[in-house]
Amino acid sequence: MASYYGVNNTKQYVNIPSEKIPAGEQYGRIHIAYDEYTTAATGGASTIETADSIAVMKLPAGARIIDATMVHEDFGGSGVLELGITGDADYLLAAVAVNAAGAAQMDGEAGNLVKLSSETQFYVTCTNNTATVSKKFQVTISYVID
Questions:
Q1: pLDDT (tens digit per residue) in 21-59
Q2: How far apart (Å, rounded) are the C-alpha atoms in residues 82 and 93?
Q3: Residue-range domains of the chain with CATH
Q4: How many whole angstroms separate alpha carbon 55 and alpha carbon 40?
């Protein structure tokens, strides 16, 4: 039976002399980035339609993403929202159906536990038309950096 060690376990307990574990990978503080948006009725300045994006939070370089959530009102119809970055609209949350009030949580998306190499802008993108009335969604991203 073989024994194996994780990267950080090796650095701290196996290597002699021991090495420092990078910031945010042990005893890190969890930070929360929060934003919200309220749509307008059809024709209003805040109406969102297919392919529209709403810029929400920016996370700093070095942030390691722990979790993401979206809480939303009942947008009616067949609305679908995603939380992602430029070039990957569903990086954190994919196909969040907003046709009934609810919440979605990150579950195995590409951005899970990723350490950002540069400051990164996040967007909520509409992939299917949403409500024609004023509705709100709220987004949080939990991350560690220190």
A1: 877 777 888 999 999 998 876 655 556 777 789 999 999
A2: 5
A3: 28-144 (2.60.120.380)
A4: 16
What is the tens place of the pLDDT at every residue in 82-125? 999 999 999 999 999 988 899 999 987 778 888 999 999 999 99
Give residues with Cβ within 8 angstroms of 139, minimum separation 6: 34, 35, 36, 56, 57, 68, 69, 70, 83, 122, 124
Question: Are the C-beta atoms of residues 47 and 41 closer than 8 Å to each other?
Answer: yes
Report d(CA 58, CA 121) in Å as an integer. 4
- Closest among 116, 119, 106, 141 to 36, alpha carbons compared: 141
- Alpha-carbon dihedral angle through residues 42, 124, 38, 72, given to the nearest 10 degrees: 110
Residue 72, token pair as written in the block: 């939303």
**Closest to 12 (Cα-Cα) out of 4, 22, 20:** 20
For residue 83, count CB atoms less than 10 angstroms from its CB and return exposed for 0-12, middle for 13-18, buried for 19 or more. Answer: buried
